[in-house]
Amino acid sequence: MLLKEKILDVFFKNASLINKNKEELEMHWDESLQLLNPEQKEILLLQYKYFMPKTTKELILFLYFLFSGCFYLLILYNKKKYFEFGLKTNLLENALLKKNMFEWKKIQIFAIYPYKSEAIILEIFAKEFFPLIRRFILNDAQILYSNSYDYLENTIHFVEKRSKPYLQKNIPVTLSHFKFENLENYIYYLRNLGIYNFVLDLENFIHSKLKKRDLLVILSYNSFLVMSIGAKKEQIYERFKSVYIEIYNLVLDYHFYIETLYTVNDSVREVFFKLKI
């Protein structure tokens, strides 16, 4: 097998959604390409022909761009350009194209793609492309200048793994997020040991309100996630709607967000976004 074929074989094995929908994506891309004016078409095709990736990461990003059927792709991290390729096509000249912006924390993706492919591209970006970019960025010393622990991605993987057996049996899993507000000034005076004891007391308080099958995950000193097996959003709301939290004679302000997973096809990543995590 030639090197190019080996690379594509590995890519499609890891990009399962693109592999599954590649014929439809290619059909919509080709249809949209025909509506480009000759000059734009030539510019775009020459970009493909002479593209020379400098790194493996750049090659993988290009392959996602190419096989998802995008005409333009710009990835920003913390408002700085991470990757750009393609042609900023004038949408007024091509009725088959659509422009969109996707955002997750500090990552933004600006894309132009065939509007007929939108449902597929939304799924690809949410389930495959965003996680891939996050892994790239969080291991890129030139961007981060320090080592980072991606607690969010690890928590998503943990929730997916833990909830899957129940969702396969049609048992719902509800995720609740306690997001505490205005703790910074108070925490500032506690120092390390005080912060540890404060978080421990807060954890114990929330634990006292949980059922036996609930699981509590501490995301940070002011952010706590609860997994409730076999419960729906409405039930959790009734359980916690009147909870009054007081630690060290301090009444805590917090927001409480609830979302329920019903099937293995429900995206934990999208639910985290709704939970303001």
Brief description of this entry?
This protein is α+β, with helices and mostly antiparallel strands and 277 residues long. The protein has helices at 3-14, 16-33, 38-50, 56-68, 118-137, 141-144, 151-167, 184-188, 191-208, 233-240, 268-274; strands spanning 72-77, 80-86, 97-104, 107-114, 173-181, 214-220, 223-229, 246-247, 250-251, 253-261.
SS class: alpha+beta
Low-confidence stretches: 144-149
- Please outline the major beta sheet: 4 strands, antiparallel
The number of helical runs is: 11
What is the general shape?
elongated
H-E string: HHHHEEEEHHHEHHEEHEEEH
- How far apart the termini lie comes to 44 Å
- How many β strands by DSSP? 10
Task: Tell me the Rg in angstroms.
Answer: 23 Å
Sheet-strand content, in percent, reads 15-25%
Helicity level, as a percent range?
A: 40-55%
Describe the structure.
It is a single chain. By secondary structure, the chain is α+β, with helices and mostly antiparallel strands. The chain is built from eleven helices and ten strands. A four-stranded antiparallel beta sheet has the order 2-1-4-3. The two termini are 44 Å apart. The relative contact order is 0.10.
Q: Could you list some keywords that capture this structure?
A:
single chain, four-stranded antiparallel beta sheet, 11 helices, alpha+beta, elongated, 277 residues
Protein topology:
Blueprint: H1 3-14, H2 16-33, H3 38-50, H4 56-68, E1 72-77, E2 80-86, E3 97-104, E4 107-114, H5 118-137, H6 141-144, H7 151-167, E5 173-181, H8 184-188, H9 191-208, E6 214-220, E7 223-229, H10 233-240, E8 246-247, E9 250-251, E10 253-261, H11 268-274
Antiparallel strand pairs: 1-2, 1-4, 3-4, 5-7, 5-10, 6-7, 8-9
